[in-house]
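Marked as duplicate of an earlier ticket. Keeping the data here for the record.
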Amino acid sequence: MINYKSNIFIGAALIIFAAVLKAVTFPASFNPIIAISLFSGVVISDKKLAFLMPLLAMFVSDIILEVFNIAPGFYGMGQIGNYISLMLVTVLGFGIKKVNAVNVVGFSLASSLFFFLLSNTNVFFFDTIAYEKSISGYMTCLAAGIPFIKNGLITDLFFSAVLFGSYQLLYKGQSKEIISAS
C-alpha cells in the first residue's frame, strides 16, 4: 500500500501535469484529463478522491486558461456539463474489474466516445453557436466535433496506456485499488 504522503504527491503531480498540458496544447488539447478520470475510477479506493482528481485537473486548467488569456476558462453551462461528463467517465472506471490491455483499450475508447457525445450535446444545448434545435441541428453539431474526437481518441489511448502501464509496472501483484485517503 502506498503511504498517504505519496498519494498526495502523486495526485498533485497528475493534476498539475494535466492542467499545464491542457493549457500549453490548447486548442489541440493533448492532455490526460479523461484518462485520469478513468484511471481514478479504477485505482482510487476513496470514491470522493476518485471524482476529485479529474475535477481538480480540469478546474486548475480552466484557471490557467483564464488567467493567462489563452482561452475563456469559464464559459457557462456547457462547462458544468463537461465537469459532469468527467464524473461519469470516473464512474465508467468503476466498471473495470481487472486491469489488462483489452479492458484499458476498450474503456478508454468508450470514455472518449462518451465524453465526445456528452460534450457535444452540451455545445448543442448551451453554446453560443446557434445550432438549429432539431435532430438535423444536433447531427450538424456532432459532425462539427469530429476533428476533436479523432485527437481525443489518440490522446486518451496514449495517456491511458501511460497511466495504466505505469500502474501495472509499479504495483503488479498488489490489490486493484491502491490509492486511499488514509
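See parent ticket for discussion. The chain has one domain: 4-171.
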